[in-house]
Amino acid sequence: MTALVDYGAGNLHSVHNALRVAGREAGAENVVVTDDPDTVRRADRIVLPGVGSFGACIGGLRALDGMVEALDERVRRDGVPFLGICVGMQLLATRGLEHGGTPGLGWIAGEVRLIEPTDRGVKVPHMGWNDVAVTGHPCIAGLVEDGEAYYLHSYAFHPAHGHDVAAMTDHGGGICAAVAHENILGVQFHPEKSQAYGLALLQRFLEWRT
């Protein structure tokens, strides 16, 4: 069973549909949208979406009694495969700097900061199709591939350690497109909006054995 966490801050309908489509190919169609920590504790893999500001998203997650603890237990203690999408990836950081400093989950050391392109002609937010260039991270061999995906964000994850960067893109300078650590994967782009590339990624995630 795949738990898609509902904390009031995700594009749930589109992500749920994309996971179900990908699950047909992976033999993993049981995708449950849930705000229940006990359901998360029973999940074989977990997806954390996210749309909106860092502070509002982490606040919504923490407002679910016991959810952060359940995620920590199942992902960090038990090692089940985890996917964070967009702000769901950013929440893995130590803190986000949108509207001041807000602590994140702290699973991957780093900060989420406003995109500041070196080229003044480059607009923020970073919106539309752009490259995903993998770094050869050993945790995600065969999971994230080079290609093009759909992005929509104004803030970017800056991991403290380069070995946590799994893929990069360029938008007036380098931007972290994916992070990874053991059984944890986060992607800045939206797989559910990335057509064949995104569905293939979700299928590989649903087949991932850590």
Automatic annotation (TrEMBL):
Gene3D superfamilies: 3.40.50.880. Pathway: Amino-acid biosynthesis; L-histidine biosynthesis; L-histidine from 5-phospho-alpha-D-ribose 1-diphosphate: step 5/9. GO terms for cellular component: cytoplasm. One of its GO terms (molecular function) is lyase activity. It catalyses: 5-[(5-phospho-1-deoxy-D-ribulos-1-ylimino)methylamino]-1-(5-phospho-beta-D-ribosyl)imidazole-4-carboxamide + L-glutamine = D-erythro-1-(imidazol-4-yl)glycerol 3-phosphate + 5-amino-1-(5-phospho-beta-D-ribosyl)imidazole-4-carboxamide + L-glutamate + H(+); L-glutamine + H2O = L-glutamate + NH4(+). The keyword Transcription regulation does not apply. Keywords: Amino-acid biosynthesis, Cytoplasm, Glutamine amidotransferase, Glycosyltransferase, Histidine biosynthesis, Hydrolase, Lyase, Transferase. Residues 4-205 form the Glutamine amidotransferase domain. Its EC number is 4.3.2.10, 3.5.1.2. PROSITE patterns: GATASE_TYPE_1 (PS51273). It comes from the Bacteria. This is Imidazole glycerol phosphate synthase subunit HisH. It comes from Alteripontixanthobacter maritimus.
